[in-house]
Design brief:
The protein has helices spanning 9-39, 47-91. It is mostly helical. It is elongated, with a radius of gyration of 21 Å. The chain is built from two helices and no strands. The mean pLDDT is 90.
Length: 95
């Protein structure tokens, strides 16, 4: 059986940059959604329809905020892991 390869610092950095890009895209989309819903509030004559529209708006904006938080946290964690891998490799003595 082949032994699994360990991840290197470059892998952590590329993952952090990718997650950071997804975070930036999520921020942009979430801000666009917030702007749209601020300028176009749902207005229905029926109370039930108004409640559904408000709940859907809250769910959509909340999902965008969760995506921003998740991608941002992953990007920060992978960046810290990158720094840890770089500094540990510098302090290891050459064999």
């Amino acid at each position: 059986m082949a032994e699994p390869t360990s991840k290197g610092p470059l892998s952590y950095l590329s993952g952090s940059l990718t997650s950071g890009l997804f975070c930036a895209i999520s921020v942009w989309i979430t801000l666009k959604l917030i702007t749209y819903y601020s300028l176009h509030p749902p207005q229905y004559s029926q109370q039930f329809a108004q409640s559904i529209a408000t709940a859907l708006k809250t769910l959509i904006i909340g999902s965008g905020c969760v995506a921003v938080f998740s991608f941002g946290l992953i990007a920060a964690g992978l960046l810290l892991l990158f720094f840890q891998a770089v500094f540990q490799n510098e302090t290891k003595p050459a064999a």
